[in-house]
Structures are given as C-alpha cells and as structure tokens.
Specification:
Length: 293
C-alpha cells in the first residue's frame, strides 16, 4: 500500500531555496540545534561517522563545532550546499554504515515518515543512535484557528493551510514499528510573540515553512479574508501589550539500532521479589477485598 501524498516536496525545496535567497530566519532551528547538542552531550560515547539528515541549514554543524565525540559529520539533504545530495525518503546509505543520525526540523515534511525511520535504523550500525527534533501537532495552532474562522466567515468554507504535524504518542509507536530499541519521545512547547500575525507569516516565509500541502488552495488569498484573519488572531491570541502569541511544538525522538549489549525487559514471571514485599504491604489475591483476612 502506498502512502498518501500530503506534502509537495518539490515545492518545499523551492520554498527553502527562496528562504536562503531572502536570508533564512534561524532563531527556531538555532534553538533546536543547541538543545540537540546538549542532549547528545549527555550520552558519553563517540560517533566516528555521523549524518545530519535533512536539516535545512548548517545549524547542527555550528552547534557541534569542536565536539570531540563526533568524528566526521556529513550533511545529507536535497540542497546544493549539502555534503551528500539525498532525499530523506530515499536514503543513499548502505546498511550498518553510520554511528549516528541526527536531524533538526526536517522530518515533519515527509510523506513516508515510517519508511524513512526504517531506512534510518537500517543505516545505523548496531548500537548506533538516532536523535531528531520535528514539529508537533500544536505548532501554529493560533494561525490555524484564525485562518479557519476567517475563511468560514468570509468565504463559507475552510481550506488546508497549516500542515497536519505528528502527535508525540504516534511518534513513539512509529519508532517501535521501525525496529528501534529503547525508543524515547518527549515534547517541548515554545511560545514566540510577534507584533502582528503578518510578522509571523514573514518569518515563516524566511524559514521556508509556508504552505506546501498537496491539497492547498491554488487561488490567491483574498485580501478581506487575510484582514479578518489578523483581526481574529489579535482578538483571541494577543497579550495585554498587543503582541500576539505563536506556538511551536517540538517533538524529540531518540532510539538505538538493536544490539545484544542493550538493556532488555525481563521475561514475565522472572521477578525474584514480590511487589507487596518491596512496598511493605499485604498482597490481596484475586477475588479478595481489602480488609478481608
């Protein structure tokens, strides 16, 4: 069964190229890159061969400059300045070639994320690490709600404008499905304030993160709809000083390529100590009620 096409990835690459030409806005990816470097620094081991997969700038290379834990870091992306020209949905690496795969704010635009995760796991050596950050489902919820309300009011219908980003619980299941050992997911919410929704939209343009949905409306956005969107946004999501809020939800993923040295769950029934003894309480058998003797 083929995966549904949600994102126009050729258009995404053009939008990212336009962002580089305009002068890319880096505040979000720089924050994520710094956090990713901190997270990796907590794992005390070395990674001779590492790949930065799809990150739309050199932010990770800058964050890891001087890091002694990484031998060679190659940036793989569908952009002319990448070390390895690669589509994140069709990796060019042989099985077991990499010690580390990292990625910042790229994987949420894949049409086949489950397939990409399987390819990443296969490309890792046994006990190799995957660590990534991608946008989650509550990202730009304010902009999504404001556009929907304005279009329903002005045009009598709603068109898709904000991508349907992943849920953190779904991501944990996808890591397990892809065969990663010791999968971990967590989520971080960032709130950024802007003088108006139009400044937010300008920054999204310079991030290369504007609408690339296959089902997007092709007609130009109506001026009265845009004006009403800004009014609704200000009414619902502004602070007392007049600035508006925008949410960016960051989902963090980590998982290891399986290896015999890794911790494994105990077999059912193999425990040597009863839970009741450990808690210093009385064990109640099936069918008994508390207080019965």
């Amino acid at each position: 069964m083929t995966n549904p096409l949600v994102f126009d990835r050729a258009l995404l690459r053009r939008r990212q190229a336009r962002a580089r030409a305009l002068g890319i806005e880096t505040f979000l990816i720089d924050r994520v890159a710094s956090d990713l470097a901190d997270r990796l620094g907590a794992v005390l081991r070395g990674y001779p061969v590492a790949v930065d997969l799809g990150t739309p700038s050199d932010a990770l290379r800058g964050a890891f400059a001087g890091a002694t834990s990484i031998g060679s870091l190659f940036r793989a992306a569908a952009s002319p300045d990448a070390d390895v020209f690669a589509d994140e949905e069709a990796l060019p690496f042989r099985d077991g070639a990499l010690d580390l795969v990292i990625s910042a704010l790229a994987l949420h635009f894949l049409n086949d994320l489950p397939g990409a995760l399987i390819q990443i796991r296969r490309a890792l050596k046994p006990d190799g690490l995957f660590l990534a950050a991608l946008l989650g489902g509550d990202t730009l919820t304010e902009l999504r709600q404001s556009f929907a309300a304005a279009e329903a009011e002005i045009e009598g219908g709603v068109s898709p404008r904000i991508a349907p980003f992943a849920d953190v619980r779904e991501m944990g299941a996808l890591l397990q499905r892809a065969g990663f050992a010791l999968p971990v997911t967590d989520v971080e919410r960032l709130t950024v304030r802007y003088s108006s929704p139009f400044f937010l939209m300008g920054e999204l343009r310079r991030m290369g993160a504007t609408n690339v949905l296959i089902e997007r409306r092709r007609n130009p956005l109506r001026r009265d709809t845009l004006k009403r969107m800004a009014q609704i946004y200000a009414e619902r999501f502004s602070d007392p000083d007049g600035k508006v809020r925008a949410t960016f939800e960051i989902i963090w993923l980590s998982g290891w390529a399986p290896h015999e040295s890794q911790q494994k769950p105990l077999r059912p029934g193999s425990a040597q100590t009863r839970l009741a003894d450990a808690l210093g309480t009385k064990e109640i058998g099936a069918g008994e009620k508390a207080g019965e003797s």
